[in-house]
Design goal:
Shape: elongated
Number of domains: 3
Number of strands: 21
Oligomer: single chain
Number of helices: 21
């Protein structure tokens, strides 16, 4: 238990403290707003009419404004990117920024809880408005007559209509944002989630009708209907009663103050709350002789809360819509419906582990999706690459765009390559290059594509077959790139030992690290990183072929550099096909240095071995995969006992 608590504080202590501080901030705001409306003399008559419903509704409204204000900030990716990329940003702050989505979800939960309490308080207020109707104070009463049905009050008022609409929108957004609903239909989640725009409009309109009012002439009309005479004072000192009800021990009441309690709602025909007969029956008290109270609608505060966050978010979304245009320079189809897409944009500079958001107007003019870079631009290779798993509607349409707009499969194979015209990319009048494209399913080279490029016409010849014409190039789909953005995977180089766990397509962030080692080995010497343990789990052997060439090349490079122990690769196949495993080993003899095993990884044994091998060190554990894989790795980071004082710091890729 002690070990688990210690590891939890090392991994999630900062996030837990931050969330507790946020919950405390909401509690403090609720408490002081409640006291303000409970004791405020300007709300005396309204409080007498509504009771605790007034205080609770206003306290929850303040918390709703706070959470609706802050919930947008974690979604401002450019702000978090600037803060995270700052040189002096510490590891704790970087980890908090990487988990900004958790804060967004926490604000959403708090918003839902406060909205539910707020709705209940207003239902209670509607009942009291109807029950405690009085013509004398009709200015502060929403009801038109006594015992008016509360549902009529709600359905015929601007706050009631907007409140019901916001409650419905909040329920829709919350349901669609659940993990099960989001996985079932991401596009539905994305569209419904953007109903928050309508939610904010209704929130700004919610209090515009001025239903809640406060007394403005407190100095002329002191709230309360009686003045009290202290009978023990020989001079007959007069004390004005404080607003009621007052709890016992109110620090604002002096010891000599005589407090006269109100007897409930003010009936019609009575003088300032009590009849003359009643006042005469109360010793030492006489009716107040003061002007009628005057009331004014409370000012709308929602726009003050929303002004800065909404402005920042609007600017953020505007920059995304006018993102950087990127040209596709190569597309390769890999086994198991994975597309490798290479882009070119000379203004994009990225680091291994970063991600980008891609928007394709041919598929959706506003919808964008995140992808981790598998290779980053360098001085000699100004291209960046992503690997896209075709698993949903958006990715499926992107794949269809490539197959239907000029990029065709060569010899009915599952691989294709294409180059686009770009003056910056090909400054010469004619450029010849060769790309070897592999049929990854059958482990053999199927073609060598010779691409000829000129200033105005480009043709790609694959095995003598014309694949693309200049007219087809004009209709190639365009992509807009937003980013790059920082992710936890950038911290791989900040540890001397890093454990990289991947499930399926989750290998992509580590591919960028391997590419950096392969093409910029000299940069590796300047980093803190001294050893990588790569654990990659896939359902089939064919999935390993997405990056098997890269792993093979990096291991050969490290072997030649006399650093064979720098990269330790563990390949696990959950649905084992021993024939395919044998073929893979025969094709890549250097993979004998990898551990190709059938079944899931035994994390318990692995972590115990790592703790013994790397004593008195902090080991960075990085995971990118399914939820079950992330939970399993995180659990072992928390509960692994280490007598050698080896600490495991868990990081996961999340968007």
């Amino acid at each position: 238990m002690v070990t688990r608590l210690k590891n939890y504080l090392a991994n999630d202590g900062a996030r837990a403290v931050f969330l507790l501080m946020w919950a405390a901030t909401n509690a403090i705001l609720f408490y002081f707003t409640f006291l303000y409306y409970y004791y405020g003399p300007q709300f005396y008559y309204l409080h007498q009419m509504l009771g605790y419903g007034l205080c609770i509704s206003r306290a929850t409204a303040a918390c709703i404004n706070l959470n609706a204000c802050v919930i947008l900030l974690p979604m401002c990716r450019n702000i978090t990117r600037v803060i995270r990329g700052y040189r002096l940003t510490c590891r704790v702050l970087r980890r908090l920024l990487d988990k900004s989505k958790s804060f967004h979800i926490a604000c959403g939960y708090m918003l839902c809880i406060m909205a539910a309490i707020h709705c209940g308080a207003h239902v209670f207020n509607s009942i009291n408005f109807s029950k405690h109707f009085n013509k004398r104070y009709g200015e502060i009463n929403v009801a038109s007559f006594s015992n008016q049905h509360p549902i009529i009050l709600i359905m015929t008022s601007v706050p009631g209509i907007t409140g019901i609409s916001m409650a419905i929108l909040l329920c829709m957004i919350t349901y669609s944002a659940s993990s099960s609903s989001r996985r079932a239909n991401y596009r539905r989640f994305w569209k419904i989630h953007h109903l928050f725009i309508l939610f904010y409009i209704l929130l700004l309109l919610h209090a515009c009708s001025g239903v809640l009012k406060y007394q403005t002439n407190i100095s002329e009309h002191i709230p309360g209907c009686f003045v009290g005479f202290n009978s023990d004072d020989p001079n007959g000192t007069v004390f004005v009663a404080e607003p009621e009800p007052e709890p016992e021990g109110n620090p604002r009441l002096s010891g000599d103050m005589v407090v006269v309690p109100e007897l409930g709602p003010i009936p019609e025909g009575e003088y300032f709350g009590h009849s003359s007969e009643e006042s005469e029956s109360v010793p030492n008290y006489v009716p107040c002789r003061q002007p009628e109270p005057k009331f004014k609608s409370c000012a709308t505060e929602a726009w003050i809360w929303m002004l800065i966050p909404l402005t920042l978010y609007i600017i953020e979304r505007g920059t995304r819509l006018f993102g950087k245009s990127a040209s596709t320079t190569k597309i390769v189809e890999h086994p198991n419906d994975v597309l490798e897409i290479e882009f070119f944009n000379k203004s994009i500079a990225a680091e291994p582990g970063q991600s980008i958001w891609i928007r394709c107007p041919s598929v959706s003019s506003i919808e964008s999706h995140p992808f981790t870079l598998t290779s980053v631009p360098t001085k000699h290779h100004p291209y960046f690459t992503i690997h896209m798993a075709v698993t949903g509607e958006w990715t499926g349409k992107v794949k269809d765009l490539f197959t239907n707009h000029g990029v065709k499969r060569a010899n009915s194979s599952r691989s294709y390559s294409e180059r686009q015209d770009s003056v910056e990319l090909f400054p010469k009048a004619l450029l010849n290059c060769e790309d070897t494209v592999y049929n990854q399913t059958h482990n053999r080279t199927i073609s060598t594509a010779k691409v000829e490029q000129s200033a105005d016409v480009k043709i790609a010849i694959v095995n003598g077959a014309l694949e693309t014409s200049s007219s087809e190039i004009m209709h190639q789909p365009r992509f807009y790139v937003d980013g790059p953005y920082g992710t936890p995977m950038q911290d791989i180089f900040r540890y001397s030992t890093s454990v990289c766990v991947a499930g399926g397509i989750g290998i992509t962030p580590y591919a960028a690290v391997l590419n950096m080692i392969r093409f910029n080995y000299n940069l590796l010497e300047k980093r803190k990183l001294r050893r990588i343990y790569l654990i990659w789990t896939c359902r089939s052997v064919s999935s390993f072929e997405w990056f098997i060439d890269l792993i093979n090349a990096v291991q050969s490079l490290l072997w030649n550099r006399n650093r064979p122990d720098f990269l330790n690769v563990y390949l696990h196949v959950t649905s084992a096909d021993f024939g395919e495993m044998r073929c893979l080993s025969e094709k890549y003899p250097s993979l004998s240095r990898c551990r190709l095993q059938a079944g899931r990884p035994q994390f318990k044994d692995m972590f115990r071995e790592l703790s013994e091998r790397h004593q008195r060190s902090t080991i960075g554990v990085f995971c990118c995969g399914s939820k079950s894989l992330n939970n399993a790795v995180r659990e072992h980071c928390l509960r692994t006992k280490s007598k050698t004082r080896a600490n495991f710091v868990f990081n996961k890729e999340s968007f």
